[in-house]
């Protein structure tokens, strides 16, 4: 299914007058406060977030999975779904593939399809947390960290294969997330597991094309519940540094213990030029994979404040690979992703409103109250008219969720694909 541009234009007609009034009012206020509104709108329009290929089917838990029907059953259809998201939001201009769930059968056809929908291939993700059908070795007790050299070699080879697949599509980064760890004390020798992981990553790194990055993701627990080999940003940074300049840490919002100061983590990694990617989601308890901004929108704003500061002040840090890494089982996945994209843009827009010069002056004066006023002044601004403007200028929908429903997208997908299709993934 492809959404026709004129359908969006027609849908927008109903709300355009209201939008113009709201935008003019806000733009006027922000301009008087010293903001360059056009520059903010164009930054929002340029900000693109990759959609992971595994987030387009209904999400699940280990207890069950409830379909919303009309799921994409192959990679072509997954890219079409991202095309739907992108045409409405103008923010989802990239896909992040998971291998082996999404190995293209026809590379040229996939590239053409993505190109026609203005979708780029972002980081490719390897999978050494599940056993594959014809594999000779099992990852039951780990992959890159495994005590068995044969298992480690199989996992290294898989990552090298993923790089080759990504290279054919125009990807420029490999994301490595390991489930490796232990469930019981004494099961693993921590030092051996870490050293094996480092050595394996170095072998993968040697196969990385020159213009590629390796992104090392961390997670404190799950699926292992006693120890995880790459459990935090310190472990990730050590491993990245052990590989070389093209290896970076990847921060996933949900991969922290409760109340971790994630904004401080991204800040220091950018200072050191080592933040390579960021995965968005939200959580109440752990790695809940909830819609971005649904639980802790202020924390997301504080993280964006540091990301914006880094983008403006840390030329030593590369452009980041942005991706949504969430999928919840009680929402239509496409509606869930639209809400996440909106929340990301909202936090970004609010962070762009922070008067950095005034904040710096207040910090030097140790005017703690003023520092808080500056941050919260930006946070309390209703920036949605700016988001609407950024979407409108690129041909997107004033309200992507309302347009998605008004255009009856899910029912069209069900008519096209049937009820019982199932997307690959967890
Ligand atoms: Mn992630």
UniProtKB/TrEMBL annotation:
Q: Which InterPro entries match?
A: L-rhamnose_isomerase, Xyl_isomerase-like_sf
Q: Please name the Gene3D superfamilies in this protein's record.
A: Divalent-metal-dependent TIM barrel enzymes (3.20.20.150)
Concerning SUPFAM superfamilies, the annotation shows: Xylose isomerase-like (SSF51658)
Q: Which UniProt keywords apply?
A: Isomerase, Manganese, Metal-binding
Return one GO MF term.
isomerase activity
Under what name is this protein listed? L-rhamnose isomerase / sugar isomerase
Q: Which organism is it from?
A: Algibacter luteus
Organism taxonomic ancestry? Bacteria, Pseudomonadati, Bacteroidota, Flavobacteriia, Flavobacteriales
């Amino acid at each position: 299914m492809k959404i026709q541009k004129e359908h969006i234009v027609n849908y927008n007609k109903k709300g355009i007058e209201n939008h113009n009034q709201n935008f003019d009012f806000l733009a006027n206020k922000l301009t008087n406060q010293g903001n360059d509104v056009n520059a903010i709108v164009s930054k929002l329009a340029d900000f693109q977030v990759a959609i992971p290929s595994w987030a387009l089917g209904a999400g699940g838990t280990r207890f069950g999975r409830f379909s919303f029907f009309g799921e994409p059953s192959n990679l072509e259809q997954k890219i079409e779904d991202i095309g739907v998201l992108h045409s409405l939001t103008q923010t989802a201009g990239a896909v992040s593939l998971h291998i082996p769930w999404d190995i293209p059968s026809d590379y040229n056809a996939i590239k053409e399809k993505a190109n026609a929908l203005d979708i780029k291939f972002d980081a490719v993700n390897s999978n050494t947390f599940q056993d594959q059908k014809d594999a000779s070795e099992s990852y039951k007790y780990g992959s890159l960290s495994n005590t068995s050299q044969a298992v480690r070699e199989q996992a290294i080879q898989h990552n090298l294969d993923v790089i080759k697949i990504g290279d054919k599509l125009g990807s420029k980064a490999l994301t490595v997330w390991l489930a490796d760890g232990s469930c019981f004390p004494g099961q693993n020798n921590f030092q051996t597991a870490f050293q094996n992981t480092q050595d394996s990553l170095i072998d993968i790194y040697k196969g990385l094309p020159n213009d590629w990055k390796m992104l090392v993701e961390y997670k404190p627990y799950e699926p292992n519940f006693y120890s995880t080999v790459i459990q935090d940003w310190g472990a990730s940074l050590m491993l990245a540094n052990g590989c070389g300049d093209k290896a970076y840490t990847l921060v996933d919002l949900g991969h922290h213990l409760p109340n971790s100061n994630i904004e401080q983590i991204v800040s220091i990694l950018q200072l050191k030029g080592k933040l390579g990617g960021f995965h968005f989601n939200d959580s109440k308890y752990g790695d809940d994979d909830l819609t971005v901004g649904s639980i802790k929108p202020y924390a997301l704003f504080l993280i964006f404040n540091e990301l914006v500061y880094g983008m403006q002040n840390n030329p030593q840090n590369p452009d980041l690979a942005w991706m949504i890494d969430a999928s919840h089982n009680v929402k239509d996945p496409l509606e869930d992703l639209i809400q996440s994209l909106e929340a990301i843009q909202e936090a970004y827009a609010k962070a762009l409103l922070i008067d950095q010069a005034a904040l710096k002056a207040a910090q030097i004066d140790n005017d703690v109250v003023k520092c808080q006023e500056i941050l919260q002044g930006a946070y309390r601004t209703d920036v949605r008219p700016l988001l609407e403007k950024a979407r409108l200028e690129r041909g997107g929908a004033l309200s992507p969720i309302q347009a998605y429903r008004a255009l009856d997208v899910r029912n069209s997908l069900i008519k096209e694909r049937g009820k019982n299709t199932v997307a690959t993934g967890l």
